[in-house]
Specification:
- The chain is mainly beta.
- Helix content is 13%, strand content 62%.
- An 8-stranded antiparallel β-sheet has the order 1-2-3-4-5-6-7-8, with helices on one face.
Length: 130
């Protein structure tokens, strides 16, 4: 598990680091199925200065919608990812994951909250392999 966390962190950092120039892209589409079921979706991504941000939204034919976002950015000793999602029904959740690489350990701090007022946080440290 530790090696998977490390590999994911390295991949995320190389993605953010490899974007030497700032940029963005966006996309939208509309999907219509049988019996009037369908939705319109849009998504966008921006990158630069060691950060990658993604966001998307989906609006259904019945007027309900859902949206989400995530931001991944480099820090001095690792990376941080923040993300969230919400729906037109009033439910929402946000969360943050901070990974710090030390000389002999890796620390992962996670926290989050919901629109209902629930919140959580936890921290875990693993020794780094020799």
């Amino acid at each position: 598990m530790r090696s998977q966390v490390f590999l994911l962190a390295c991949a995320a950092l190389s993605l953010a680091a490899s974007a030497a120039e700032a940029g963005s892209r966006s996309q939208s589409r509309s999907v219509q199925g049988r019996f009037g079921h369908g939705y319109t979706a849009s998504r966008a991504a921006t990158w630069g200065d060691g950060a990658v941000t993604r966001q998307g939204q989906r609006t259904f034919n019945n007027g309900m919608s859902q949206s989400g976002w995530s931001t991944l950015y480099r820090t001095d000793d690792g990376y941080t990812r923040s993300r969230g999602a919400s729906g037109s029904g009033g439910r929402a959740v946000t969360g943050t994951k901070d990974v710090s690489f030390g000389d002999d350990s890796v620390t992962v701090n996670r926290s989050g909250s919901t629109a209902a007022g629930d919140a959580w946080s936890r921290s875990r440290t693993w020794p780094r392999g020799q």
